[in-house]
From TrEMBL:
The keyword Flavoprotein does not apply. Belongs to the short-chain dehydrogenases/reductases (SDR) family. This is Probable oxidoreductase. GO terms for molecular function: oxidoreductase activity. It comes from the Bacteria. Pfam families: adh_short. The lineage of its organism: Bacteria, Bacillati, Actinomycetota, Actinomycetes, Pseudonocardiales. InterPro entries: NAD(P)-bd_dom_sf, SDR_fam. Keywords: Oxidoreductase. It comes from Amycolatopsis xylanica.
Length: 316
């Protein structure tokens, strides 16, 4: 575990909003790419970054939904991208690269959770494929446009506690478990940031991962109310219980990660509640970040596997 993986005292908390963490930060002239930037915490991320002066590119799986969600917000460009479709990733990246623009921050906020077993692309398990491999291919394809000093923010989850990388059966050929699949994909999001940070450091390009909090969004589309009541997420009326955040609060950590000067000179860290997270306690409590998600050997191994599966590697 890296010794830098400890709170730094940002002055923000679990109730801070994306707008609050951007107070006094002028993003005029900066370009941000936000996947999933038209729903849930991604939508709030797009709004906050654009309000602070950034130009935001929000590639969408469902363009019409994005157009409706982002209507009236200035400095936002919508494009098309399906992270489960390697050809869609390639054509989006090619369109973007052809414009010759530079990217100052990438926030990979798109994701699916606990979806029924399905396959995407050339047969990838869908949660690993969309949440990890799709973003892996996207960032690698866009790498030549990433500006020196940029930040790449990989949106993970405390769900990474549910599973390390299952090296013996990443694709769940021997029986599917939707929460293990989510956990593996979210562990991959963290390991991706660990390895990318190594590659980008020489150019001042730093990568972080994070848990945004627990926020009611469309992410629960694959779950029944009964399951969420049993898991203690909701009451029987469908209201969030416990330490839930609003979408504006849920977007705060990724916006903070992408912009805070307090993180200058750091990278490869897992964040939550607008601060660096603590290591997970040894007693198995689902809090902080697990060792296996920050392990540099695991990160390097996952990179090789992901490059092999996607056929893309900006660092080969
Ligand atoms: N909400 C929480 O409590 C929570 C907790 C921990 C971590 N997270 C993480 O936060 C991130 C954002 O989640 P959210 O809560 O904002 O969920 P959300 O409202 O469902 O947003 C997810 C976004 O991902 C997009 N997406 C899904 N599949 C895609 C694909 N194949 N290609 C391109 N885009 C795709 C969705 O587009 P469509 O609507 O068009 O499918 C949507 O815009 C996820 O990575 C999630 O794991 C959320």
């Amino acid at each position: 575990m890296t010794t830098a993986q400890h709170k730094i005292g940002s002055g923000f908390t679990d109730t801070s909003t994306a707008t609050e963490v951007l107070h006094g930060i002028d993003l005029t002239g900066k370009l941000a790419l936000v996947t999933g930037g038209y729903s849930g915490i991604g939508l709030e991320t797009t709004k906050a970054l654009a309000a602070a002066g950034a130009f935001v590119v929000a590639p969408a799986r469902r363009r019409a939904v994005a157009e409706e969600a982002l209507a009236g917000i200035e400095n936002v460009e919508i494009d098309e991208l399906d992270l489960g479709d390697p050809e869609s990733i390639r054509t989006f990246a090619d369109r973007f690269l052809a414009t010759g623009r530079r990217i100052d921050m990438i926030i990979t906020s798109a994701g699916v959770m606990a979806s029924p077993e399905s396959r995407v692309g050339p047969g990838w398990e869908a949660q690993f494929g969309i949440n990890h491999l799709g973003h892996f291919a996207l960032v690698n394809r866009l790498w030549e446009a990433v500006a020196d000093g940029a930040r790449i923010i990989s949106v993970s989850s405390r769900g990474h506690h549910f599973s390390p990388i299952r090296w013996d059966d990443i694709e769940f050929t021997a029986g599917y478990d939707k929460w293990q699949a989510y956990g593996q994909a979210k562990t991959a999001n963290i390991l991706f940031a660990v390895q990318l940070d190594k590659f980008g450091r020489d150019r001042g390009i730093r990568a972080f991962s994070l848990h945004p909090g627990r926020i009611r969004t469309n992410l629960i589309r694959h779950l029944e109310l009964r399951e969420m009541v049993e898991a203690g997420f909701m009451d029987t009326e469908g209201n969030m219980v416990g330490d839930a955040k609003t979408p504006e609060q849920g977007a705060a950590t990724q916006v903070w990660a992408a912009t805070s000067p307090l993180l200058d000179g750091m990278g490869g860290l897992y964040l939550q509640d607008c601060d660096v997270a603590e290591p997970a306690p040894a007693d198995g409590t689902i809090a902080g970040v697990r060792d296996y998600a920050l392990d540099p050997t695991e990160a390097a191994r996952l990179w090789v596997l992901s490059a092999d599966r996607t056929g893309v590697n900006a660092f080969a």
